[in-house]
Amino acid sequence: MSEHIGNETIDGVMTLTLQRPEKKNALSGTMYDALSNALRQAERDASVRTVLFRSEGDSFTAGNDLADFARQASSQDAGDSPAHRFIRTISNASKPLVAAVQGNAVGIGTTMLLHCDLVYLAEDARLMTPFVNLALVPEAASSWLLPLRIGHARAYAMFALGEPMGAAEALACGLANAVVPRSELREKSQGAAVALAKRPPGSLAMTKSLMRDPNRVAAQIAEEGRRFKECLRTAEAREAFTAFAERRPPNFAVVPG
Ligand code: COA
Fold this sequence. Notes:
Helix content is 46%, strand content 15%. By secondary structure, it is of the alpha/beta class. The chain has a single domain (5-183, 197-203), classed as 2-enoyl-CoA Hydratase, Chain A, domain 1. The strands form two sheets. The chain has a six-stranded mixed beta sheet, with helices on both faces. Strands 5-7-8 form a three-stranded mixed beta sheet. A hairpin with a 2-residue loop joins strand 1 and strand 2 (13-18). Helix 5 packs across helix 10. It is globular, with a radius of gyration of 18 Å. Coenzyme A is lined by residues 23-24, 26, 59, 62-67, 104, 106-107, 130-131, 134.
């Protein structure tokens, strides 16, 4: 278990809390693994009826730890990354998933919401999928699921231009169930998770599986994963990660094609 992931089960609700606020809850490999292990534990444990994702601090998450991306870019390891394992695990969850999101939800912070069943946003929530800013490609089947949910034009602007989406627009687009003041986010999401935990689990699981296309999602995740890995090793991605570490804008004009 990572020190940066809280895991507590009360009244049938497993609450997983991102606890790295000093790094805007950026997700390291150990954090992804802790989340994957907790989701697998939730699948096995009949007393867990719902999983609630939340986070401490002013951001839901700044997405993948960019230092980890830089390390993966220079490593020869061809194995599965913790992020990819988490994506596969969350996309296969059979129990209801609820998310409570405040502040920035970058990259996986937004794409994981496409695998959650109820999403509550604080008024200051900002959903961002700036994969192209980092010379990467979308993940978590978002290249299929996001256009499906919000239309090609808006999804493309989020991916390619890194345009953020505010809470009100996300609600209007059907990406969220409600927008609430920050002070009410915890109670609202917890209340929904407890309500789900009291409902018949077999019926909930079947309803969820009927609303998803697991084979299509798995195929998209696999294809994105293959291309994501290719992208990580490119000169343009190296420039993007170096620029973030050096706190300067990337310069893609000088990168060999
Ligand atoms: N990986 C690693 N560290 C990160 C991070 C990330 N994805 N995002 C933020 N941090 C760190 C910063 O390096 C900084 O650390 P430091 O205090 O040791 O210098 C700290 O978190 C605070 O970040 P800062 O950028 O100062 O906060 P901000 O409020 O000005 O901006 C964000 C918040 C989320 C908009 C900005 O941090 C950001 O754009 N992060 C990168 C997001 C990203 O591209 N993620 C990958 C998506 S695929």
